[in-house]
Amino acid sequence: MTLYISATFKELTRKRVFLVTLILTLVFLLLFAFGAWGIANMTGENQGSPANRLLSSMVLMVLGLFFAQFLASFFVLFTAMGTITGEQESGLLLAVAARPIPRWKLYLAKWLGHAVWIAVYSAVLFVSVVWTIHSLAGLPLLAEELLRGLALFLWMPLLLLTITMLGSVYLPMLGNGICAALLYGLALFSGLVEGVSSYGGSHPAVEKFVFLTGLLLPTDTVYRRSLFELLGGADWAGLAITDLGPFSVPSVPSNAFLLYTVGYAAVMLWLGCRAFSRKDL
């Protein structure tokens, strides 16, 4: 497994998109830190109440992590959309699959190799945003809440990785990237629609649309639960995540739904291993 993890890292570093992603991530973090610093100074000069300052810092956290999960998701798409068919077209997969190991183990090794580096990238992104808000805007955070939020934030791109790798068994690299991006965009859109519709009261059609989209690809649902845990759960999260327009989180995913995502990932991995074992190389 260690061999495949290191090989995956070498493969990622050879791609230009990896360097571009790192540069754009650094630019985002610098601009976000500059914006948070400016807003924190404006709040301090106006001498707003502690409640207003707390609300402002929570809003910054929500917006920062929204774009952070956007970056993490596209990092997954650009690095994993050609995991199987891309290597098959280049001839690399045939050489690797010739080794005396079951194909399902090879598929899991590739998933694990990508998962490790995606988790590292997402963790750095998450910690950078949270630390920026904590240090510049003074948002109080508890270690337990921070760890729960981080764990769920990391789980979100791993779910997207699982469905993207499954698609790479059946679809060409470009087609798989488009399909995975559309699924991710649909999940993101459903969350935004739910946030907007919460102002006029919940509508049964919207609730069904959000629920079915969450079952199809639960990335946005897991992200919203991550925000809820990070911002203190029921104690503080309602201050910032119920009045942000499309970024609002009017409903919090349950623990039962989180268990569903675990089963979802297990089934997608099983389908990927099964399809790859039967694939004609």
TrEMBL record:
Pfam families per UniProt: ABC2_membrane_2
Transmembrane segments: 17-39, 59-80, 111-134, 146-166, 173-193, 257-276
Keywords: Membrane, Transmembrane, Transmembrane helix
PANTHER family named among the record's database cross-references: ABC TRANSPORTER PERMEASE
Protein's name in the database: ABC transporter permease subunit
Organism: Paenibacillus chartarius
